[in-house]
Amino acid sequence: MEGEQSRVVVDIFSVCLKEGHRKPQIVQRGLDGIEKLLRVGWIIGHQQEDEVGRLITDLARNPVWDVRDTVMGSVARCFESNENDVQNAVDFATRHDLPKLVLSCLADDEAYVRASALRALERIIVNPAGNLYIQAQIPFSRFIKTVKHVLANTEAFVRRAAWEFVTVLAKKNGVASVFGEDGVGKKEVQGGLADVDWEVRVKVVEGLEVLVGQLGISAGGKDRGREEEVEFWRLGGDALVLQAIKDPSRLVRQAAHHLITHFIQISISSKPQPSQTSPTTNAKRARVTDPRTEAFLMALDDLDLAQLEESTVPEYLYQEALDVDRSVMEEVDARGEGNNVLTCYDC
């Protein structure tokens, strides 16, 4: 579709975007249509392109939070990395600074919009062009400061999304930048592990596991000059993991056990092993030169990792109930004794 026909189609969807103050559902339809037009290149370079970009920017500041939330989802879809036809949408989004718009929405008054903005940023970071835009156009100090602020959000589901984003960001851009001295620090990690929401604590442990991957460089001897800068040790990762295995939540302990297994595997691979025994046995025999790794492995030696793993499976919880001492269940108190005897029955 070219010329006058394409202009008419774009105008129709633009009218939908202008209805945001009245009907959010119409805005959704308009954004859906704009996305499809972007993918086939009907807006890029056309005279309506700037108007569409301005309309989307204005919608992100709309007083109706549903509209702002819808815009976050639309921008996120522009950066779908698993699609082959999003390049035009990515070009449009970066030309009109939509990633900056998403970042600003981390301070939105509505928690749902903040969570949607975090998910949109995750899509942007995963997309190579989006990640390049973030690194080139947004000062990292400002970027990470904004993200750190959301880690302490009042809503648990926002904190979950924030920690998930931090983990993805560390995987894509390196743990040194995200968890470095100016990034997410010990205070934030300790606060996350003490969160009242168990899902937040799980995501914090998963973030720590990304740091474990960096140990493969230091312990393997490929970059020993950076040993003192390894973020896992700087944040006190060993103590944090030992704290996580005592968590009352089964799934937090499960994440911690997975991290420990990863740590042991890296420790084993740091030097040739003399035998083909179990990974745990080899980890106890194969000590690496880094004293911090050595000390952590010694602390893990004192743990019953098999019992820890067993305690993370659902069947273990049911078995605990079945293993209750029968004599305790059949115990009978004398009349007038026992804290659980109602007065009306003690007569």
From TrEMBL:
The answer, when asked if Lyase is one of the entry's keywords, is: no
Q: Which InterPro entries match?
A: ARM-like, ARM-type_fold, BRAT1
**Biological process GO terms, please?**
DNA damage response
Q: Where in the cell is the protein located?
A: Cytoplasm
Q: List the record's Gene Ontology CC terms alphabetically.
A: cytoplasm; nucleus
What keywords are assigned to this protein? Cytoplasm
Residues folding into a coiled coil are none
Q: Which domain of life is it from?
A: Eukaryota
Q: Which SUPFAM superfamilies match?
A: ARM repeat (SSF48371)
Q: Which family does it belong to?
A: Belongs to the BRAT1 family.
Tell me the protein's name.
Uncharacterized protein
State the species of origin: Rhizophlyctis rosea
